[in-house]
Design brief:
The chain is mostly helical and 273 residues long. It is built from ten helices and five strands. Helix content is 39%, strand content 6%. Strand 4 and strand 5 form a beta hairpin. The relative contact order is 0.11.
Amino acid sequence: MDFVASREDEKEFGWRNRVGEFLREFGVTVFDPWFKPEILGVSEYGREDETTAKVRDQWNFEQGDAGAKARAACAEHFWPALHLDLRMVDVSDFVVAYVPTNVYSVGTPHEIIQCRQQRKPVLFVSPPITFPHLHELEEHLAGRGDKDGEELLKCVKAEVPIKENPVGAPSLWYLPLIGGEHFFDGFGFEEFRSVFGWDKDIPLDELEHRHPPQRPLLAFLRDLNTKLPQKWNRHSNTYGPNDDWLLWNLDGGTDDGAEVYDVNVARPSTETS
């Protein structure tokens, strides 16, 4: 959310909108950081919008009272959003994270780590990262014999840095943290676009057209609605139970709260003779 090309477009047309709509179709309660739930007694707590990142404009490293005041204002301004996002992680059964390797991110890793510390699943989308327009620019400059332009582009690639990841391999640190069965190389929007009426193209549609996902998230979520996933046991060399998926099976209607009984103990019979 922080370093996307356009916060306005991301809020209105980003991947969270589509994934949220997809999950709600299966009766899932979705917590979206763009559209945070209301908090009892604290109106608008933690809300973010297209202008939230502008608070950084007052940041500086000046010594003295003025610098300390500006930094404290920045830190305190965003605390409610951080607080609420982490609380949403606390109450969720699983988290969906989109983590392309070319985007700087801090909040997402924090939420991922908090989720995994609670032994809950993180469904981690790591797409292929390629830069086709960069290659077109390189060919364009080479065709013109523009040595100065080529050298400037070389410097830009080093400064950014621009690093391709055509297989979408995540950071090695994420591998043991997430677990092998919860990585995906895309969302697989194309299969469901006509069903949900996703007519407007977004950048991810172009990416998934160029690199059709081999392991799409939405198909996994569809299957999850009927069967809990297993995970690979490297000791027995076969699939087995995946104890990351501990989903509450609570009885209760719309009027009364659910009742919790001892683990694996049958609910007492209410029949009379």
